[in-house]
Amino acid sequence: MFQIDPRLASDSLEVASLTLCQVLLLNDRRYDWLVLVPRREGVTEVLDLSPQDQAQLWREVTLVAQVLRGAQPALKLNIGALGNIVRQLHLHVLLRQEGDPAWPGPVWGHSPREPYGEAAGRAAAQRWQGLLEQEAQA
């Protein structure tokens, strides 16, 4: 049975379920940072997915990237799949801008997260959920 890695779950807020992936919001108020987790048990690399799931993954990454870029068109979009600590396959899709706390370096491991408050986190997750639904219907 599929379950999101506990470390990933503890660092994020649920946003939406797409055809293949669970979409999470990384709980760091400094960044617009969504994470896609394919709902497939035991998958650690994109290559572990079937060709059909690989194609669906990239469709969903594109959807999420379009939503992020639409929200802040002037920013730089980063997409990454590291998995050195959390081995479960997950892809980070986030917006970067000059002057953000980690600029121009990578955000991973740069500094401790600054979590949303409970109400602000819920509102942010609902915002991204609504934007994803709008884009998926377009």
UniProtKB/TrEMBL annotation:
The answer to keyword Transmembrane helix applying to this record is no
Pfam families assigned to the protein according to its UniProt record, in alphabetical order: HIT
E.C. number:
2.1.1.-
Q: Which GO terms describe its biological process?
A: methylation
Residue ranges constituting the HIT domain according to the UniProt record: 34-103
Instruction: Tell me one GO molecular function of this protein.
Output: methyltransferase activity
Q: Which of the seven top EC classes does this enzyme belong to?
A: transferase
Q: Which PROSITE patterns match?
A: HIT_2
Gene3D superfamilies from the entry? HIT-like
Tell me the SUPFAM superfamilies matching this sequence: HIT-like (SSF54197)
Q: Which UniProt keywords apply?
A: Methyltransferase, Transferase
Protein name (Swiss-Prot/TrEMBL): HIT family protein
